[in-house]
Amino acid sequence: MRNIRKNKDLGIYGLAAKWYDRNSRKSRLTEMKEYANEVASHVMKGAHILEVAPGPGYLSLELAKRGFHVTAIDISPDFVEIATQNAKEANVSVNFIEGNAAHLPFEDNRFDFVVCTAAFKNFKEPVKALCEMHRVLKKEGTALIIDMNREVTDEEIEHEVSKMKGFDKYFVKFSFKTFLKQGAYTKEEFETFIKETPFKNYDIRKEGIGLYVYLYK
Questions:
Q1: 34 pairs with which residues across the strands?
Q2: Across-strand partners of 104?
Q3: In terms of C-beta distances under 8 Å and separation of at least 24 residues, what long-range contacts does 32-37 make, across chains too?
Q4: Euclidean distance between CA atoms 34 and 36, whole angstroms
Q5: Helix H segments across the chain?
Q6: pLDDT digit string, tens, across residues 81-132
Q7: Which residues lie below 8 Å from residue 20, measured CB to CB, with a gap of 6+?
């Protein structure tokens, strides 16, 4: 197995964060609603949810609109600022804070659900991040990690971006095939990580170009 440790946590800052926000607002809102539907199917009304690495925060906003109590933590202060402004514009309450996935600043057994999308591959210490998710989850809580599958084919990537247009289509396709795919994990690598954590029950399924990793406390 390849070296699956990263040299540092990867965040998105400055102009790149602003571009990511604009692109998400333009082309990823439907995706965020689908993710919110998936999370909502696992929790009761009024549940306390943590999003790890929310970026510009659109999934957190969708969850807050549905009446959940949402906290979100991101390593990028620029994303925290952008997401906080997005929450104000949407007139919803989400507590966006700056922090590291491997050192969550929350007490034990606080959240009913933890979700992380399109960011796990950027964590320097993936096992620590998983252990922290387990720690802050309530008993019988669930964590869901959605991220790119490194074993995805070029044909599957082409299908994924086929509905996009213009520069965004080519930029996203280039990102998928270079930076994202190279940094992503396989199902087997996720299983290796999980074996080093307190999570005993899990389920991993392939969806499109991604993996849905469900972890049960």
A1: none
A2: none
A3: 32/58, 32/59, 32/61, 32/62, 33/62, 35/59, 35/62, 35/115, 35/117, 35/146, 36/62, 36/63, 36/66
A4: 5
A5: 14-27, 29-40, 58-65, 77-90, 126-136, 154-161, 166-175, 181-183, 187-195
A6: 999 999 999 999 999 999 999 999 999 999 999 999 999 999 999 999 999 9
A7: 12, 55, 56
